[in-house]
């Protein structure tokens, strides 16, 4: 068995147990339990998590004494049993509901922690009264007090939660009554119930107003409490415990919550659970270690976590003392014994002088000390030189931690940077082979902000030879143990009064006595690192100003690109809408048989297609401001030939358009003119069959910022008695109107067939219409 140092029974006895006389009213005893807890956990007192845990353990039981002799125990579990029975507690004395103590431990020098732990486990109790030789109560031992005394981090950091969790998880609807939860706890002998709700939005507690419901709509069964001196006279009904995976956990209600409600003399059958639940459900993976769970519970200030593969599959519950009830006692004993031996060995070695100390004359340094000083100066010079030669902060910091670790011959050196909320990240690390890397780990340590931040801002240097013997808080020990740290040397990295981070040297293989020159080295290095950080931040500030200009340019380019995309989308949508209109006209034309009306529909369709084609070409073009008019004319003419396929047979189409690019304001009217003139040629120029039918479209620049469009055919010619400028033809009227829109002129040549010449300027070169 381990030696007595870590296993002294005195370290786990709470000398302030709650005691009452046998004639104390039950409600008074319950009120006493509530006061004992609340008086020690005021947030303003900043009580450490382990102290809060001990306070709650003390408040979870009262001992009934007669004179000075122990005659009974009343715990939270007993209180839940009584509450679940539905009796009138106001008329009950504690003597009638207390439990006869199954065992008490007589205080003795021969007993140790393992004796107490074995008794607690054997009798499945959570409170072990300690009496003196006369049978008087002198204290109480709880699993919580044993948890605080036994340094088991090395053991539990390798134990998965599946090894210590309690299953199954008892669940109930969030709308269940507080009384029904007490009945569930009593029946299943658990100290908490997880509240659930349906995952659909309609049943969300946060998004709906839950109305009082005495469980009439839930599946119910009569209460079946374990054997107790009181029967369930009120016959309350409650929801069946469910293990369904289709529900979402939303909160937890504990024994403590139920008892606090009862202490207020409230009607538990009318109080819905969600109104008193602890809303945070901390969930961890089954593969997480017990030490991780303890750390998370301390950080979130909760007493239990839920073990789950996913948010809706709850596998078990783990409390801060679960591992003491499940792990093998031999394993626990061995772990404590090994730790005790390493502490004793380190203390024995520390009492001896360092091996390199010799009897040199006073004031003279030994050769070993001179070598150490030379090496220290070389290291500082190397890092200072690198800072002046490089602006790459990552390179400087990585070199620093690597060379420091080599010089100190330690297992891990890191630089830890703080965030504004005092969480932080390991930004660089040098770690020996075989140890778990911590690089990029982000740590949210509530204990640090409360206990250490201000001291480090004032330049504190933390020297820890052994985390188990230097008075660190339990949450600090736990996080160090998670990363296998046994000894640490930590100095702050300051930027003025701002705590930028920490430079940390860690020894993992065992305790270590840090020497003065090592402490001084790290202190000087932290100053060099602070200079490097300041230099890098100034450089980054200059780079940021230069980058800001570049970003402004990029934003302008991006803005133009966005507008280009928007214009393309607009053209695409306009083209689609015009095609829809064309399709509607085609569908409408199916309802008439009159040739004249059908012709009107066809003409309208062709006009719409000519405009749609402009938007299609612009959507496909890389240049949204101009359109390739040669390609446009070929597609437009092809569409017209297909539209008038009966009259366009054997017609030869010739186009001559070279490198003509027009903007949209010019291309649309120009395209409509070509559509009208070519449609006229297809409809009227060739009334009789011929083998040499020909339509020509030419457009060219006259070199004076003007274009000449010529649409001609070799057909029968334009009627001589008809003035094309004054005709009832809608098509020719459109041609004249559109020519005016283009600031152009139009001429007709009827000597050989029909030939129209339109001279125009590109809109925008002269004016914007």
Secondary structure tally: strands: 27
Find the structural class using helix and strand composition.
alpha+beta
Helix content: 40-55%
Terminal residue distance? 101 Å
Number of helices: 21
Radius of gyration: 45 Å
> Quick check: average pLDDT?
80
Structural shape: elongated
Give the DSSP E fraction (strand runs of 2 or more residues): 15-25%
Strand order of the largest sheet: 17-16-15-20-19-18
Residue stretches low in confidence (pLDDT < 50, at least 5 long) are 39-45, 201-245, 357-363
Major pleated sheet: 6 strands, antiparallel
Summarize the model shown.
By secondary structure, the protein is α+β, with helices and mostly antiparallel strands. The protein is 42% helix and 20% strand.
Secondary structure layout:
Layout: E1 18-21, H1 26-38, H2 49-58, E2 61-66, E3 69-75, H3 76-85, E4 105-106, H4 113-123, E5 127-131, E6 137-142, H5 143-149, H6 153-156, E7 171-173, H7 178-188, E8 192-198, E9 220-222, E10 237-239, E11 247-254, H8 255-263, E12 283-284, H9 290-300, E13 304-310, E14 313-319, H10 322-326, H11 329-350, H12 367-389, H13 393-408, E15 412-418, E16 424-431, E17 442-443, H14 446-451, H15 453-457, E18 462-464, H16 474-482, E19 487-495, E20 498-507, H17 516-589, H18 595-620, E21 626-628, H19 629-643, E22 652-657, E23 661-663, H20 664-685, E24 694-701, E25 706-713, H21 730-741, E26 745-749, E27 754-761
Parallel strand pairs: 1-2, 4-5, 7-8, 12-13, 22-24
Antiparallel strand pairs: 2-3, 5-6, 8-11, 9-10, 13-14, 15-16, 15-20, 16-17, 18-19, 19-20, 21-23, 24-25, 25-27, 26-27
